Amino acid sequence: MQIYDIDRDWTNPIAGDPKTLHEMMVNAVSRSGSDPLFGYIPGRGQPRIHVTYDEFGGLVESVSRSLRDRGVKSGDRVAIILNNSVEWAATSYAANALGAAYTAMYTHQHGGEWAYIIADSEPTVLVAADTDVLDRLCEHLPADGWPSGGIVLVGEDAPNSRPPEGVNVTTWSQFVAAGNNSEPVGEPARDPHGLATLLYTSGTTGNPKGVMLTNWNILHNILTMQGRFELYKGDRTASFLPWAHSFGQMGDLHFMLHQGVHINLISDLLKIAEECTEIKPHALFAVPRVWNKLYGKVMAGLNSSPIKKRLGALAFKKARARIAADGRDCIKIQPKGFLDKKLDKIVFGKVRGRFGGEMRFCISGGAALSPEVASFIQCVGFSMFEGYGLTETSPLISLNGWEDGHPCKLGSVGRAIPGVRVVIDQDAWDNPDSEDGEIVAYGPNIMKGYWKNPEATAEVMTEDGGFRTGDLGVLVDGFINITGRVKEQFKLENGKYVAPSPLEESLKLSALVEQCCVDGTNKIKTFTIIHPNEYALRDGLKAAKIDASGSFEELCASAEVRAYALEALKNEIMVPNWKGFEISGGVFLDPDEWTTDNEMITPSLKVKRRALFDRHQADIDAHK
């Protein structure tokens, strides 16, 4: 695909650019026709089914007709409560064809949040995953809060609960069949600056805010990156990032479809590696949690026996020497010499095999990736490009590896993509000892604002059109290093400022830690709240000759166990990697996983720090 000049005018489409997501989809269908677009497993134990570009184009046309017949018109909204699926994609492009904005929610989201988003966005039609979602909608939606065009249920099961009288409920197959037999929609919407989607940010405090993204906001991200990576028509990807999140939606759906890629949906998030073995993806988009898990599993396997440990150490030594001699960060460097090649095949070949053995590159986003994990992935033999952005920036602001020669900087999130300018505002917070500041982004990727919320929009937009990201960072040779969140930074009693995000990411590399949160506002020392891995905790206690026979809840409450966990994490993570004043003086163990159901995390997996602190207030108060 054509690589655009980075200095072109990115404020509007030029000749040949698609003006809307629907036009982009139609162009992709005309190019790829009978090639497979989506692969998915319809049910447990069933073979993967494939849908071609042509078949999908026909489905979108049918869905757009049915949406129109249900009253959807330009300027309306269509709500989606689905997991990644062909139906999700078809609904989004069909709504776009009509000039309507799609509003996607997570199936695991709290019913109260659905009710708020539906009331705020006022969709004409809602497409829901199944009867379970409908049951929860019936529980939380008021009688006058249902979409006027009704509910479409994916699946053929009869509803368990019924919405109020007059609210139409139909199955997806009936909905599509009605569209097949209806009149064509005619000329689709073509406004590049028309609203394409309302994406609700799952804020850690307060109600979600609807981010207004236009067609051109998203298309700018896609067109600036086309042709810049080793991704070709007919390649395969494994898709598991939720499309209800901006990173997954832009990267794993719109960008891949535009490139003519075969998108294979992962049916079981607990079996990503197993399904990747079958799919054999050429590229993979993921968040740090996935890479951290891979790092933990591989390192645990290498440490499982003396011979594996020795082979692993030799393989890493050879790989790091080869990478250092080459001088390039993040890029796969081929092994050289007999021993290097042999060790690479024995140790790292198995890891690559877990992902099908054909991976050319990976992209990580959504949160900061530990430099240790990024280095590990390069040693394994994958090119890993870390990027940065937010829902409000469509989402991409910066990325490693997009320029000629793929220049990258380990520990950074890359340089700003074409058309985007980044400024570091050092006046945004009050740490006089730091060179970092708030990252402010400018460009055609910046949202129109928050839906029906001009006050919140004014809080994040500068007078000259910049978007205040809320993230702290510093520029080094044009590369952005993220140092924390403005609102999460805290000050200890001695006046030292602490950025918790990188500390938390480093803790997640320990087998002991499943989830964690670091704070210490106005305290002498920081403290760390951890939801530990039960098996790793019990094994560690036994090795330390500490009684591990109690229930998990009893172990987490034990002062002796907490002291063990603190000492173990100090030795493994804190002392080697943290500054002295950052090292925690106490660890509080939480036996309960932090989930959206207990409202400890958001649907995008961000910790609700205030809720977590309220839960552990007694321990925090006792901590000096």
Provide a quick synopsis of the model:
This protein is of the alpha/beta class. The chain folds into three domains: about 20-215, Rossmann fold (3-Layer(aba) Sandwich); about 285-485, ANL, N-terminal domain (Rossmann fold, 3-Layer(aba) Sandwich), CATH 3.40.50; about 500-620, ANL, C-terminal domain (GMP Synthetase, Chain A, domain 3), CATH 3.30.300.30.
Structure description:
The chain has 624 residues and is an alpha/beta fold. A 5-stranded parallel beta sheet has the order 4-3-5-6-7, sandwiched between helices. The mean pLDDT is 94. It contains 20 helices and 26 strands. Helix 2 (53-69) crosses helix 3 and helix 11 (306-326) packs across helix 12. It has 3 domains: 21-217, Rossmann fold; 287-485, Rossmann fold; 500-622, GMP Synthetase, Chain A, domain 3, CATH 3.30.300. The longest helix is centred in the middle third of the chain and has 21 residues, at 306-326.
The CATH architecture of the largest domain can be named as 3-Layer(aba) Sandwich
Rounded radius of gyration (Å): 25 Å
- Please mark out the parts with pLDDT under 50 across 5 or more consecutive residues, or reply none: none
CATH top level label of the largest domain: Alpha Beta
Taken as a percent bin, the fraction of beta residues is 15-25%
The strand order across the widest sheet is: 4-3-5-6-7
CATH-defined topology of the largest domain: Rossmann fold
- Helical residue percent band: 25-40%
Give me the count of strands.
26
Strand-helix topology:
Elements (H helix, E strand, L loop, with lengths): L20 H12 L3 E5 L8 E4 H17 L7 E5 L4 H12 L3 E5 L5 H11 L3 E4 L2 H10 L10 E3 L15 E3 H9 L14 E7 L7 E6 H11 L10 E4 L6 H13 L3 E4 L6 H8 L3 E4 L1 H15 L3 H21 L11 H17 L6 E4 L6 H10 L2 E7 L6 E4 L15 E2 L4 E5 L11 E6 L6 E2 L3 H7 L6 E10 L2 E7 L4 E2 L5 E2 L1 H8 L5 E7 L6 E7 L1 H10 L8 H6 L1 H19 L6 E6 L19 H7 L1 H6 L2
Parallel strand pairs: 1-11, 3-4, 3-5, 5-6, 6-7, 10-11, 12-13, 13-14, 25-26
Antiparallel strand pairs: 1-2, 8-9, 9-19, 14-15, 15-16, 17-18, 18-20, 20-21, 22-23, 24-25
Helix pairs in contact: 1-2, 1-3, 2-3, 2-6, 4-5, 11-12, 11-13
